[in-house]
Amino acid sequence: MKKIVIFSLGAVFVTTVALAYEMHHPNLQDAYGATEQAIHHIQLAQADNRGVEFGGHADRAVADLHQAERELMAADKYNDEHHHHHK
Question: pTM for the complete prediction?
Fold first, then answer.
């Protein structure tokens, strides 16, 4: 149980740091939230499967999801720069 708490707090910390940049596009915000949920679920699966690391695939999935988050932020910034209408 302790591992799950650590992983959960880690996911919250990552979210807080990553969202220091405020996304403006609602759909991109939702997509970013979905990637955070996916990362959280993968980390819970890793914590539950003590010692079983899913052959490194779970870690690669988390890394890919973090890359997806960076792309979503870049997409939002691009949108802001090319469509000067904010809510």
Answer: 0.70
Domain edges within the chain: 2-82
CA distance 62 to 31: 15
Between helix 26-48 and helix 2-18 the angle, nearest 10°, is 160
Query: How far is it, in rounded angstroms, from Cα 31 to Cα 15?
Result: 13
DSSP H stretches of helix in the chain:
2-18, 26-48, 57-82
Residues, the chain: 87
Contact 47, 5 (CB under 8 A): no
At residue 22's C-alpha, the angle toward residues 85 and 66, to 5°, is 120
Task: Tell me the per-residue pLDDT of 29-78, one tens digit each, with 9 for 90 and over.
Answer: 999 999 999 999 999 999 898 867 799 999 999 999 999 999 999 999 99
